[in-house]
Amino acid sequence: MDWITVFFQQYALFCLIGMVVGVLSGLLGIGGGIVLVPLLHGILVAKGFASDVAFHMALATSMACIVFTSLSSIIAHHKNQNIVWPYVWSMVPMAFLGALLATLVAIRLDARYLTVFFASFTLFAAIQLLIDRKPSPQKLPGKIEIGLVSMLIGVISALVSIGGGTLTVPYLTMRQVSVKQAIGTSAVLGFPIALASTVSYVQDALVQSVHAPMAFGLLYLPAIMLITPLSVLFAPLGVALTKRLPVKILKRIFACFLMGVSLNLLWSQLA
């Protein structure tokens, strides 16, 4: 069996996932984690990893991918002047701290609890996509409020391995920030959240003396090396498709997909 056959049997699916995540990120403005985690979990289980270990690895690997893909998004939003930097500087420190602390807990938390939490959050995100409710503007936040909210966003994002856009965008739009600027600012916030989580996972890996094949602690290296560049490459395609495809209908289709993923994960824990 030549190396090309081995590659397509073992790793071609990661390439496909990278393309899909990139397109969806550009098309719907979502983070990749909510798609990556259930797909990676299924693949890792199929490769022989225990379900609880596979779920932790899916969370860690997803965050490592988001570190790199978020940088591409930040550059694009900065060019389009869609980033409100005063909000960034106010939110980043507490979001980083929240993600760092939450990841340290997640590493040691029973995978069943993480799975239920992830499934519940995914169901919440699906309902939000279906409703597509536009929040009414509210007053500008104070320093204490924005600090606490940022930490909460960092904690939840780290626990479910997302960039935080599902939480950050609605919050900023309620605080008199335009939707485009809320999405751009959220993209910046996703980088320190993903970075904090990845640092925790790497630190945990460094103290381990034994690693699974092709893995560094909970980080599954083939997935990171293949998904990351392809998601970055295909994100602009998603942005271009927003001008041609009915985004509202696509959101509803994607919401139905998320609901299916959520219910399947919940059922797997209750069965």
From TrEMBL:
Record carries keyword Membrane: yes
Record key words, sorted: Cell membrane, Membrane, Transmembrane, Transmembrane helix
Topology versus the membrane: Multi-pass membrane protein
A matching Pfam family: TauE
Localisation: Cell membrane; Membrane
Highest rank taxon of the organism: Bacteria
InterPro entries, alphabetized: TM_pro_TauE-like
Regions crossing the membrane: 12-41, 53-75, 87-107, 113-131, 143-162, 182-202, 214-237, 249-267
Any one of the GO CC terms: plasma membrane
Similarity remark: Belongs to the 4-toluene sulfonate uptake permease (TSUP) (TC 2.A.102) family.
Listed name of the protein: Probable membrane transporter protein
